[in-house]
Amino acid sequence: xxxxxxxxxxxxxxxxxxxxxxxxxxxxxxxxxxxxxxxxxxxxxxxxxxxxxxxxxxxxxxxxxxxxxxxxxxxxxxxxxxxxxxxxxxxxxxxxxxxxxxxxxxxxxxxxxxxxxxxxxxxxxxxxxxxxxxxxxxxxxxxxxxxxxxxxxxxxxxxxxxxxxxxxxxxxxxxxxxxxxxxxxxxxxxxxxxxxxxxxxxxxxxxxxxxxxxxxxxxxxxxxxxxxxxxxxxxxxxxxxxxxxxxxxxxxxxxxxxxxxxxxxxxxxxxxxxxxxxxxxxxxxxxxxxxxxxxxxxxxxxxxxxxxxxxxxxxxxxxxxxxxxxxxxxxxxxxxxxxxxxxxxxxxxxxxxxxxxxxxxxxxxxxxxx
Length: 370
Ligand SMILES: [Zn+2]
Ligand SMILES: [Zn+2]
Ligand SMILES: [Zn+2]
Known about the structure:
Bound molecules: zinc ion
Order of helices and strands: EEHHHHHHHHEEEHEEEEEHEEEEE
């Protein structure tokens, strides 16, 4: 079949079908959900519960659930009860506001030796999303005294905890792995970009020792802007990395100062040699028009396909939630920001993620795609 080049009827970008592009469709759907009056949200929650009660699954209304959760931060109490009655534990976000008796029952099951490993991993995820002191204490206890089901899981409860935005260090000290505020990156004019306290993809002129591609500041944050008070950074920090080979690495690190100085730290496993991005790609990245949004949005606002780039809140992990341990202090880092690649570079897939350890002044940059 011949591919005919057309224009998106909404934004004008090149597409190969009649109609509007994927990102415009996502934007329209987001605007629709944002405008829903409360009674329609209530009836949508009713439909979600009905599906779970009637089929034991969340399939048809899965997308609706995700969008109501992300854009409207709905209370999930009724959904959690319906899901629990059907032994349905995926997606784990259904349990965000689970009723107390449901949480108690889940905690009891996960403490048993004879709980199935797969079920245990589902329960850990759901409990992580629910959070709270009792869940935290239970995770500590489960990690100190692993039950039989732990043998078949790859990671400790502390890694599951990060799905809910928290974790703990090896001494059992509670740590947040997410910031409790979220701002979207939105399109702006070149003038607005100059004033934006967050910028994506600034050129540095330095070259990557592994592949020769230009190193960029994947994101720059000016913590002196009041919107970024929640970061607790009284200066400018820059997440420096090679955008070409980060795709092939299991996370790169950079050291920073709050004066805007940073140095990319390259691991010794330097196997990448070819630069697939080139001058043209770097220029395209640097010319993006994204600026920090004026107002905060719900924490999971960008935790979705086509969620776009954002600072704080929850990431959209295309693979598993990947909170790194700081290379210096060994503690779990804190998720800081994500960039949806195809919004800044045509043809790039997936997301980039930035994490931070403020104690050690280290940032991690990671890449995930399908
Ligand atoms: Zn479009
Ligand atoms: Zn490189
Ligand atoms: Zn550290």
